[in-house]
Amino acid sequence: MPDAADLIHAAVARFAACRTRGQLGEAIAEELKRYSLFDLQAIGGGMKREVDPLPEPYRSRVRPYFEAQLFGAYHRAMKAYRSGEFERMNEAVPDRERFEKFVALVPDGCLKKDPETDFGLGGPRHTFFYYLVTGYAIFVEGGPGHPVGTPFPGGFVVERRGEKFLCPIRDKEEDVPFSICNVCPAEQMEGV
Length: 192
What we know:
By secondary structure, the protein is mainly alpha-helical. The chain has one domain. 52% of the residues lie in helices and 7% in strands.
């Protein structure tokens, strides 16, 4: 079996060639199919280890949003894949420049041995899962990286106002090179 680096590089090359939301959705779902139930449990355990040390009541408020970010997007992608929904998605991948930045950041975000690239999910393949589901939410579904309603310290949440998404930490993450925030369509919330 190819190692994680080979799998990630091959998948990213396939993503880069996608022109429509449907092509990208199918390519992401085909990568998501590779994750076993054991993998999903390990990813969930990694997320739990990351969330458990957070102080209450923030921990209880944020946990369902992190679960939705990872596993909600996973289930939506797999449902769309199995139902043939991607065949009807002929619209172009939104914001090609932002998409190309996403494709470029994924390999190093998964493979560099750096605390900034470790989401606590347990290695490159599990970190790749994070990028897969978040890329799906952003570039196939057209949403933000963190689900609407995700709370952040200070009492602010990701919001949707009309067709815009607003995030309280959008601009604060620009210094983190592998942050998904750098390719998220959400705008910085004013006054935060």
